[in-house]
Each structure stands twice: as structure tokens, then as C-alpha cells.
């Protein structure tokens, strides 16, 4: 990968990069399509990054199908699929980690200790290897977006971070590789998460600015579905991820994590979205 990216730089090719953990779905493909439309060369990485799993069982059961993924990516005219072995990313004796203070500790970081240290570290290694002009990320992982933007700014990466909207199943459930782990029944029921977020957005549009009240609206709507077990619901600033009491003019997220069975799902919507 190093020598390919060096060659591409010498040839002045713009590289669009889509980092993934595989088990690809339309959410990933939307990033690939955008990368294809805006760059000479498209590189997609597939690496299930152990450093971002705090639960061994979660890592083991994470869906993997490299052959099917590579076949799908060929349809999208991807130039390179970068699927490194564990030791290429983490050589023997690996001991250097990237840690984004504050942003990595709340929400998903609180629920999954060490998760964002793993994310920030692997993103740093991948960006440093591929050296893309643009890297594409999904808004579905809103905290990951805030962290990747902060780390690329702080560490002086030239790569532009492009963030694209959440792609959803017909029911409204945010697409995720983890959805394959849901029972058919729960997969339908999990659409309640988006419905709840939409209720809050409607209330916001009608003038509700009190974050606690918005949280309550989401909570009550999700509670109508007995199969759901809420992990957290929070109203936070989109960039700093700090909790907000009263929604002002800044871009603001309502973020949700909820369990259906033992599958943990996350979703969010943006209030005050700036174009
Ligand atoms: P993952 O393979 O889950 O690590 O995701 C790889 C990239 O795809 C990340 O930038 C995710 O935010 C993005 N992604 C995952 N699901 C979706 C979705 N439903 N819509 C848009 N982007 C997504």
C-alpha cells in the first residue's frame, strides 16, 4: 500500500479513501460512490480493527466476508481494496496509540472504554499509509466523525474529511453491519429509533429547545417498543460533543444507543444543520 500510494502521488492522482470494517452495505457504497465521483483513484480498506473492540465476543461475532465484499467493490469500479493482515497494521511490539482527549470519553466511549483510542489509532495509521486527498465517513457514526475531524486537524493531516448522510433500510433503521445479527422481528422493531428521533425533530421545529424535554420525547417513543433497551439518549454539540441544556444556533446532535436482544445499535439526527 505504501508503494502504491507513493506511485499515485508521483503521478499526481487524487485519491479518495473509504475506510471500513467490511460486511459492506449501501451505507458503505454511498461513500464509495461519492469517492468514485470526485477522485482519480478510489481505495477502500477492509480491516476489522481489534483495537476498537473492548469486548472479545463482539469482535469474534463481527460479520466478515472478504470475498463477497471485494466482488461488490468491483461493481463500483474501485481501484484498490486494501485488506491488511493484523501484523501489517500492528507489527510485533506495537505500542503507539492516538488518543483524542474528551471527545473519546463520552457516549460510545463511556459505553465502550478504549473504543475511540482504537479508532483514532487505526485511522491515523491508515491515513498515513494511503495519504488520500479525501477520506469519506458516514454521519451514522457521529462521534467517530467528530473525533476523526479533530485528530486530522490536530495532527496536521492534509486529508479532507468528507461526511455523508446516514443511509437507512426501508423501515428507517440505519444500515449497519450489525443489523445482520438482529432477528427479523427485531430488525423491524428497531425502526422505532428513527421514529423517536423524528418525533424530537418535529418538536424542535415547533420550537422546543429544552434538551431534557427532547430527550424525554425520544425516550417515550422508544419505550413504546418493549424489545428496545435504551443505553443512552443525549443532546450534544456536533463538534465538541458536550451536552447541551438549551439548543442554540450551533449544529446539535440527538444521539441514541439502544439494545435489541444483545445487539447494540446507534443512531442520531442533526438539529440546525448548516448546508
Ligand atoms: P464500518 O465498516 O462500520 O466501520 O463503517 C465504515 C464507514 O461507513 C464509516 O465511516 C461509517 O460511518 C460508514 N457507515 C456505516 N453505516 C453507514 C450508514 N448506514 N450510512 C452511511 N454511512 C455509514
Provide the descriptors you would attach to this structure in a database record:
single chain, 275 residues, alpha/beta, five-stranded parallel β-sheet, three-stranded antiparallel β-sheet, 11 helices, 8 strands, globular, binds adenosine monophosphate
Structure description:
The chain has helices at residues 2-10, 26-38, 56-61, 66-75, 86-89, 108-111, 115-130, 142-154, 184-189, 192-205, 211-223; strands at residues 15-20, 41-46, 80-82, 134-138, 160-164, 228-237, 252-260, 263-271. The protein is of the alpha/beta class and 275 residues long. The chain has a 5-stranded parallel β-sheet, with helices on both faces. A 3-stranded antiparallel β-sheet has the order 6-7-8. Helix 7 (115-130) crosses helix 8 (142-154) and helix 10 runs antiparallel to helix 11. The longest helix is centred in the middle third of the chain and has 16 residues, at 115-130. The mean pLDDT is 97. It binds adenosine monophosphate (AMP).
Task: Give the % helix.
Answer: 25-40%
Number of DSSP strands?
8
The computed structural class is: alpha/beta
Shape: globular
Number of H/I helices: 11
Mean pLDDT: 97
What ligands can be seen in this structure?
adenosine monophosphate
Amino- and carboxy-terminal Cα gap: 35 Å
Assembly state (oligomeric): single chain
Give Rg in angstroms.
19 Å
Quick one: biggest sheet? 5 strands, parallel
What is the beta-strand fraction?
15-25%
Main-sheet strand order equals 3-2-1-4-5
Summarize the helix and strand pattern as letters.
HEHEHHEHHHEHEHHHEEE
Weakly predicted, low-confidence segments = none
